[in-house]
Amino acid sequence: MQSFNKEERLCSIKLIDRLFHDGSSFLLYPFRIVWLPENLNSDNPVQVLISVPKKRFKRAVDRNLIKRRIREIYRLQKSEHLYPFLKEHSVNLLLSINYIGNNIADYAFMDKKLSAAIGKLKKEYLSSHVE
């Protein structure tokens, strides 16, 4: 459960297109989260796309550092905060985590903000799927 393997990454161009056209989004600085409930043919309840804009970070070294930090934080938090919620509501998600900050944030700040973003994602899902 503490891994982040290939099956958890969002690679399908059709699914990415559907995510950005039909998905819901919110901002929680320094992240923009885009999500879409989707029936996936996978054992994993979430497929994730992590992106850092080339426009803000010209050097690949900087973009890779930010992506590495986001992946690590997500890897550690998903089994505690996200997966139990999704299994409880029996839903699968497509998820995009876009970094929108202008400078490289430290690990502790990103950890706190991604945790808050996951909490907000759960609240938004519940408010949009009230039955």
Give the integer mean of the pLDDT values.
93
Cα(first) to Cα(last) distance is 30 Å
Model regions low in confidence, pLDDT < 50 over at least 5 residues: none
> What is the CA-atom radius of gyration, in angstroms?
14 Å
Name the helicity range.
40-55%
- Could you give the order of strands across the largest sheet? 1-2-4-3
Shape: globular
- Biggest sheet details: 4 strands, mixed
Number of strands: 4
Report strand %.
15-25%
Please identify the structural class as seen in this structure: alpha+beta
Q: Number of helical segments?
A: 3
Q: Keyphrases for this structure?
A:
single chain, 131 residues, alpha+beta, four-stranded mixed β-sheet, 4 strands
What does it look like?
- With 131 residues, the protein is of the alpha+beta class.
- It is 47% helix and 19% strand.
- The chain has 3 helices and 4 strands.
- The chain has a 4-stranded mixed sheet, with helices on both faces.
- Helix 2 packs parallel to helix 3.
- It is globular, with a radius of gyration of 14 Å.
- It starts with 12 loop residues before the first helix and ends with a helix.
- 21% of the residues are buried.
- The model has no long low-confidence stretch (mean pLDDT 93).
Give the secondary structure arrangement, pairings included.
Blueprint: H1 13-22, E1 24-28, E2 31-37, E3 46-51, H2 60-88, E4 93-99, H3 107-128
Parallel strand pairs: 3-4
Antiparallel strand pairs: 1-2, 2-4
Helix pairs in contact: 2-3
